[in-house]
Amino acid sequence: MTDLAIAANGLRKSYGDKAVLDGVDLAVAEGTIFALLGPNGAGKTTAVKILSTLVSPDPASGEIRVGGHDLAADPQAVRAAIGVTGQFSAVDGLITGEENMLLMADLHHLPRKEGRRVAAGLLERFDLVEAAKKPASTYSGGMKRRLDIAMTLVGDPRIIFLDEPTTGLDPRSRHTMWQIIRELVTGGVTVFLTTQYLEEADQLAHRIAVLDGGRIAAEGTAEELKRLIPGGHVRLRFSDPAAYRSAASALGEVTGDDEALALRIPSDGSQRELRSVLDRLDRVGVEADELTVHTPDLDDVFFALTGGAGLPHQSKESVR
Amino acid sequence: MSVPLAPARPTRPSPTRLSLVVRDSRTMLRRNLLHARRYPSLTLNLLLTPVVLLLLFVYVFGGVMSAGIGGAGRSDYVAYIVPGVLMLTVGGTVIGAAVSVATDMNEGVIARFRTMAIHRGSVLVGHVVGSVLQCVAGVVVVGAVAVAIGFRSTDATAVEWLAAFGLLVMFALALTWIAVGMGLASPNAEAAANSAQPLVLLPLISSAFIPADTMPGWFQPIAEYQPFTPAIETLRGLLLGTGIGHNGWLAVAWCVGLTALGYRWSTAQFSRDPE
């Protein structure tokens, strides 16, 4: 178990009679990015709050270890190993960006000179030098988020929790944030991030757990999760209803959308299967106006696992 | 501020628990004083009340009031009300502590502090020490105004001056812990300002402006034993040489009791899981 940065067994948390987390098991290997993916209200933030010692889990929970320390027995040791950037900006808006950084340096008990050096280095790295002397309340959303992460990094944490780090950011800031997160991991840091964006999990995470209704609906790499869900198909769109009908009868096993004049043929998107579709269309002399190949993406997984509607039974299982 | 006690070494010495508490509290204090310095309007507004009351009671009501307490003129009344106004200054200033604690608790940065390996109580200690220092500064400002309009405390010995200062600090500490508790119990700054309002109203029904024995009979026990009256009577005795009697012990008991209560209440609230 020594190579696990985070290990939680049967994580439970209820508020009143509402179970927010209903027995969640998590295992995050050191030096990896782990994404907890789920819709709003799935319990992502609660999981981060518990793992980062902000709130205590229900007594019925199993053992939780973060950074090798028992969360219940030695929360202070856990705190020394982690850094947290919450969903709502955790900067002091009344003081400047630089003062925020120096505050963190003092709270990490860095000697004054080293504190100044670390603060200056991080302000530089996160492109905040120009704004350093301005109150943090005047920062834009992206700048606040960068300052937030810079503050988290002052103590050189080995495990970093990022709760929805890109929610509310514009596309450019989002890509900057992704770059930052990737760089963190190259330095050997473990990142535990929550997100409601599938693309984000797909882009960043080594492993993804889909959280829904307080339970892990599925867990694995992005590829493993995509394989869980049938959904690959070729979509053909026609403008001529006659062509649409003859294509439908030529291809046989298809689902049609009569209004859009579109056909959906199950396919893994391989060259061989595409050729066979095109050959059959050629044989009846029909030409589609548009052809798109759709491979299952995490969106399919997400909707299938978290919607509850029409999801295949076996996909409830975790693939490890 | 952070002058190392030992020469700086490449490896950090493992600090004792106490030195950690002191260090983190000092950091938090510096943060709070920075807030107060950067945004002084709250503190200054709170100082306005005692100064206005002092001038109002001396120059507008002073003649009548002086006759009422059997004094010979306005200057007798100045001597009478200044100790009360100084305590009222403390009561007004700690409202600022309630407001800034409530504001702080709605900030994400507090959640960050809770997930850091620092002494947890340092957040509150920073607020408390900051508020006591602001009380002292406020008392100095209002005291200066009092001296400017003719208040003199020439009979008091150095020991009495020291005791007076000590009493003001103890009283400020006690009211601050209560105010911090109120701030923690309030959902926002406005609610905190409202719930702390009694701290500036209580002096009005104490012996600050008129002697308690001139009040209606049924009301006298309330006026006499509420925390402000013994504190004011003791301060008056120390600065002007009037009789202190049992008020000295009563004032100290109130200070110790309120501090203990406010401390327990505040730390219990702060150690609870946040929402």
TrEMBL record, chain A:
It comes from the Bacteria. This is ABC-type xenobiotic transporter. Belongs to the ABC transporter superfamily. Drug exporter-1 (DrugE1) (TC 3.A.1.105) family. It is a peripheral membrane protein. Residues 6-238 form the ABC transporter domain. It is an enzyme of class 7 (translocase). GO terms for biological process: daunorubicin transport; doxorubicin transport; response to antibiotic. GO terms for molecular function: ABC-type xenobiotic transporter activity; ATP binding; ATP hydrolysis activity. It comes from Streptomyces humidus. SUPFAM superfamilies: P-loop containing nucleoside triphosphate hydrolases. Keywords: Antibiotic resistance, ATP-binding, Cell membrane, Membrane, Nucleotide-binding, Translocase, Transport.
Automatic annotation (TrEMBL), chain B:
It comes from the Bacteria. It is found in: Cell membrane; Membrane. The keyword Plastid does not apply. The chain crosses the membrane at residues 42-65, 77-102, 123-149, 161-186. It holds the Pfam family ABC2_membrane. It is a multi-pass membrane protein. InterPro entries: ABC2_TM, ABC2_TM_bact-type, ABC_2_transport, Nod_factor_ABC_transporter. Residues 41-273 form the ABC transmembrane type-2 domain. One of its GO terms (molecular function) is ABC-type transporter activity. GO terms for cellular component: ATP-binding cassette (ABC) transporter complex. Keywords: Antibiotic resistance, Cell membrane, Membrane, Transmembrane, Transmembrane helix, Transport. GO terms for biological process: response to antibiotic. The keyword Acetylation does not apply. Belongs to the ABC-2 integral membrane protein family. This is Transport permease protein. It comes from Streptomyces humidus.
